[in-house]
Amino acid sequence: MTKWPIRWDLLFRYRMIEIIALWEGRLTTNNLIQSFGIGRQQASKDINSYLANIAPDNLIYDKHLKGYKPSESFTPQLTLGHADEYLHVLSRTEDMMVTFDELDMGFENTTMVRPVTRNISPDILRPLVQAIRDKKRVDISYTSLRDGEEVERIISPHTLVCTPLRWHVRAYCEHSKDYRDFVLSRIRGIPDINDKIVMGKDEDKTWNTQLYIELMPDPRLTEAQAAIIANDYGMENGNLHITTNAALVRYVLDAYNIDINVLNSNPKGQQIILGNLEELRPYLAF
């Protein structure tokens, strides 16, 4: 395999080669032409270069398909071989087609169900990004869900967090004298950057506490049903361990639709349960 570094633009095209071949079963120069706006000669050169330098045995040219298909020994070299990688390509295609309706980058018989994007202004996000990068404090006006009142807060942000349902910034709050999550869509006005940061990521004990979440099929399911659920989630021996930090535990559980406060009378409803609840409970109360 070619030694790193591979040029970024070429790396993206190599990754597209692997993803399209693996998940669509047919790769042509048109896939690269439409995806990257390159000529047919360059697209052909990229495929040949991939075969020569990255994975000589991954692709086979099929005259019937008029394109390349993955070989029986296909092994991803620059991707992980996860379905999410293909779904992300489809998602980006959908985004691009909003601007270029004639764009044809892949398999068209798919659709995406996405949550509504929270109302986040660039005027709010830019100062936070700058403050994190430059390690500065920020004055913000924030509307709390608790009482609906707009309050002034001075925070030291260290990480932007994207969950399936929202964006928030992890920051030290001088009013609370602790680290908090501030939902970006609840920040009013334009954050005002001031002097150097007071408390950074290194002092955020909860953020730096590493732990794992143990998920398993609901024990009320039948053995056959539990086996199906275990396969759905890629569990090994009926368990799925997800490594995260203590500050993100709630959001991981939300992503898996697990509500520790509700015991569904129908085990087919939630399907999976938390196996190490007592271990995680201290991090679910705030």
UniProtKB/TrEMBL annotation:
Residues 213-280 form the DNA-binding transcriptional repressor CapW C-terminal dimerisation domain. Residues 9-91 form the DNA-binding transcriptional repressor CapW winged helix-turn-helix domain. Residues 124-189 form the WYL domain. It comes from the Bacteria. This is WYL domain-containing protein.
